[in-house]
Design goal:
Layout: E1 4-9, E2 11-15, E3 18-24, E4 35-46, E5 55-60, E6 63-71, E7 73-78, E8 83-87, E9 90-95, E10 100-105, H1 108-113, E11 115-125, E12 136-140, E13 147-150, E14 155-161, E15 163-164, E16 167-168, E17 177-184, E18 189-192, E19 199-204, E20 208-211, E21 215-217, E22 221-225, E23 232-238, E24 240-247, E25 255-257, E26 260-262, H2 265-276
Antiparallel strand pairs: 1-22, 2-3, 3-4, 4-11, 5-10, 6-9, 6-11, 7-8, 7-10, 9-12, 13-14, 14-17, 15-16, 17-24, 18-23, 19-22, 19-24, 20-21, 20-23, 25-26
The structure holds manganese (II) ion.
């Protein structure tokens, strides 16, 4: 079992048309290596005919923006020529590498009929040696995501990356990462076992739970555990949704500016020059 290192509360910030909850980074926690940033958008209801939900084309370099959709659906387009729809319970794993441009917005159905969207975007850092790799895009649909039932069937995990129990997620990652979307039901109680990852964190989108028998946490809180082995105990007090994350610290310098995450100031300047010079392509 691991002790809780810190529990952060979310800041509020704006991303395009969304006001998002941001439990990482905060003043108290700069990152949970290799996880740099977590944005929780929604649940947000869009009116029929609403086009305002679009995040216009923008670049990334040097890390992996990963989108976990909990409700609704998202239409994605990028400079590699990908275009796809990610629905509830599905994931888009972008390896920005040397550079990608992308835009995200409502699907045509959603723009016409309105609807509700809730998603998380997570920034996973890339090892320095992989920051300038070829960009890649993984669209991970339902049928590829194994489900794991724990806490006597009161916690259902959809394993996106890494291994937990006998479930192995389909995402290709550039360092060892475990990511699982979860739904918890009140009354569940037990241990969530996570092995082989030094970094371990749990985010609550909704609901309430008691961690390790002593910390009662509610919506928009990120619980980060001490480095080490093993998992934690979880008692579900109120049903809700979670994101479970684990990884291996990269222990490398992080220099972030806007949509770029590199390891030196010079590399950041070069990213801005390359972007101004059109080297990230077009959506
Ligand atoms: Mn983006």
């Amino acid at each position: 079992m691991r002790n809780v290192r810190i529990i952060t509360d979310s800041l509020r910030t704006s991303v395009g048309p969304f006001t998002v909850k941001q439990p990482l980074p905060t003043n108290a926690l700069r990152y949970a290596d290799p996880f740099l940033l977590l944005h929780h958008a929604g649940p947000h209801r869009f009116e029929p005919g609403s086009q305002g939900a679009k995040i216009e084309a923008h670049p990334h370099r040097g890390f992996e923006p990963v989108t976990f959709v909990y409700r609704g659906s998202v239409l994605h387009r990028d400079s590699l020529g990908n275009e796809g729809v990610i629905g509830a319970g599905e994931v888009q794993w972008i390896t920005s590498g040397s550079g990608i441009m992308h835009e995200e917005g409502p699907t045509p159905d959603m723009a016409r009929d309105g609807g509700e969207v809730e998603l998380i975007q997570l920034w996973v850092n890339l090892p320095v040696a992989n920051k300038m790799m070829e960009p890649a895009y993984q669209e991970i649909h339902h049928d590829r995501i194994p489900k794991l039932s724990v806490l006597n069937d009161h916690l259902h995990l959809s394993v996106v990356a890494g291994a937990i129990g006998n479930a192995v997620g389909p995402a290709r990652t550039q360092s060892p990462v475990l990511a699982a979307m979860g739904t918890m039901q009140a009354g569940g109680s037990g241990t969530v076992d996570v092995t082989d990852h030094e970094t371990l964190a749990l985010y609550l989108l909704s609901g309430q739970a008691r961690i390790n028998g002593e910390h009662v946490v509610g919506p928009h809180r990120l619980v980060v555990f001490d480095p080490g082995e093993g998992g934690f105990s979880l008692e579900v007090l109120e049903e809700g949704n979670i994101l479970l994350l684990a990884g291996q610290p990269l222990n490398e310098p992080v220099v972030q500016h806007g949509p770029f995450v590199m390891s030196t100031e010079d590399e950041i300047k070069k990213a801005f020059r390359d972007f101004a010079g059109g080297k990230f392509g077009e959506v």
